[in-house]
Amino acid sequence: MIEKINFLVYMTDHQRGDIKDICAKAITPNLDRLQQNGVRFKNAYCPSPHCCPSRATFFSGLYPSEHGVWNNVDVSNTLSRGLFDGVRLFSEDLKEAGYQMYFSGKWHVSAEEGPKDRGFIELYNKGINYHKYKNVPDVSEWERYKGKAITDMSQTRQDSQIKRPGYPLYTQYGINENPYHDYDMVKAACDKLKEIELDKPFFMYVGSTGPHDPYFVPQKYLDMYRIEDIELPANYYDDMNDKPALYRRTKDRYSQLTETEQKESIRRYLAFCTYEDSLFGNLLDTLSERGLLQNTIVIYVSDHGDYVGAHGLWAKGLPCFREAYQIVSTVGYGNVKMRNYVEDAMISLADYAPTILELAKISTDRQFFGTSFRPFLEGEKPIEWRDTLFTQSNGNELYGIQRAVFDHRYKYVFNGFDYDELYDLQEDPLEMTNILKQGDYSEIVEKYCKKLWEFARENKDNIVNDYIMTAMVPFGPGIIEI
User: Fold this and answer.
1) How far apart are CA 245 and CA 419, in angstroms?
2) What SS3 state is found at 94?
3) Cα(159)–Cα(174) distance, rounded to whole angstroms?
4) Given a cut of 70, is residue 135 above it in pLDDT?
């Protein structure tokens, strides 16, 4: 019997934290099975609504300002290709402590190094060259437009299609029996679990690409949902006239889709979540067959959310709404004492690194933004736990500095590219009304700006700039003790 606990992580892409509540209940029997044997954190959030910065946060326990990944590391106009020098990932600690380290699926932490460089043995990576940018300053993206760009907008648009002159046709949804090759990625992980040696503990990370847009799903899972049962989100009709213009412009991308197509998109998204749940079930079954469930901590988590029609939006991006930031976060089996428990505390994706290290009984003296949530798994209430969280984004590839701070009452959003936002989350949980447009809330804004500056100082967020053309925060950093 091994002394140290094993770990299995299943990280999905674009999966909202409230998939049991949106529009129609998502069918996820295996995620339910995990919760019955563990804890679901219903108030878990990522730091940025984008794959790369959030995944870097998961592995490092740091926010983008400290780990250095701000957006997609693979695009030509990225702000960074990878992590800051000196940033250490928890996988390296586990490797040094004797863990067998396995990685299957999506990485998206760096374009200059891959999982192998951070302690893992790779099982499946879809042929990605993680080092392709290491000695190349830029890679052209022009090739994708050859023969694919739309030049004639008079052609009739088909179901689920979005036409943009000069861009390739975008199809929002469809059928694919093995979307993103996620089945192959899970099979590789299951095959390894079936033969893994148990003379020392293992950590296995399985990273899916689903339920990422566009929403192409196997027919079997689509048939589990009826279009008649799908409803548009309660905030779908938000005209966003009191919000930044970029939000409205982003929504305009989807204005070609009819309400029926919007519902079909939701249906596909839910089916995609069920498909990912089925793949996750294969991993649970394999662990069970080998008698490993009781000494393996199983983590199901997503990197960020998806609007799924909220405010008329899809996918993710600069709009700072809850749907893009709230993530799935469930931990079970192993030595998790709490069973079928739902925790209300605010959890950050940055909490996973220190939690995993503590559960593995590995000590480190380096500092994290995150805090171990081990006590919640054991039925304990930490003496102190956060009641406030922060977001940190410089935009996807359409750049714009955005920072937000929120607790259970208010959310304040600083938009460096437009006017700010303030939401009363008790009275307006759907974030429909920007109350900054309705009265004088300067005292509240000052209070939350103070929290924002304190966070910025502690996490090396260099937005401190007093130049008259760029210093747009309504209350500057001088409001805190320096």
Assistant:
1) 9
2) helix
3) 10
4) no
CA distance 216 to 209: 12
How distant, in Å, are the alpha carbons of 44, 70, 316, 395, 403 from that of 77? 30, 12, 18, 12, 21
List 346's β-bridge partners, or say none: 43
Span 75-84, average pLDDT: 89
pLDDT tens per residue across span 245-293: 999 999 999 999 999 999 999 999 999 999 999 999 999 999 999 999 9
Chosen CATH of 391-479 out of 1.10.287.40, 3.30.70.1520, 3.40.50.10240, 3.30.1120.10: 3.30.1120.10
Residue 465 tokens read as 């700039």
Confidence at residue 276, expressed as pLDDT on a 0 to 100 scale: 98
Answer whether the bond into residue 214 is a cis peptide, omega within 30°: yes
Please provide the CATH number assigned to the domain covering 6-139+177-389.
3.40.720.10
Helix (H, G, I), strand (E, B) or coil at 477: helix
Distance from chain centroid for Cα 183: 20
Close Cβ partners of 25 (under 8 Å, ≥ 6 residues apart): none
Beta carbons within 10 angstroms of residue 183's beta carbon? 17
Euclidean distance between CA atoms 127 and 259, whole angstroms: 38
Specify the pTM.
0.96
Q: Rg for the chain (alpha carbons), in Å?
A: 22
Closest CA to 14 of 391, 231, 314: 314
User: Strand, helix or coil at 402?
Assistant: strand
Task: Of 324, 285, 269, 331, give the one whose Cα is nearest residue 11.
Answer: 331
pLDDT at 74 > cutoff 90: no
% pLDDT > 90, the chain? 85
Sequence spans of domains, the chain: 6-139+177-389, 391-479
Looking at the DSSP bridge assignments, the partners of residue 203 are 7, 101
Smallest CA-to-CA distance from 217 within 166, 156, 259, 173 is with 173
Q: Which residues of 109-124 are buried (b: 16+ CB within 10 A; e: fewer)?
A: bbbbbbbebbbbebbb
- Separation CA 177–CA 134 (nearest Å): 34
DSSP calls for 274-332: HHHHHHHHHHHHHHHHTT-GGGEEEEEEES----TTGGG--S-SS---HHHHBB-EEEE
Q: How far apart are CA 425 and CA 405, in angstroms?
A: 12
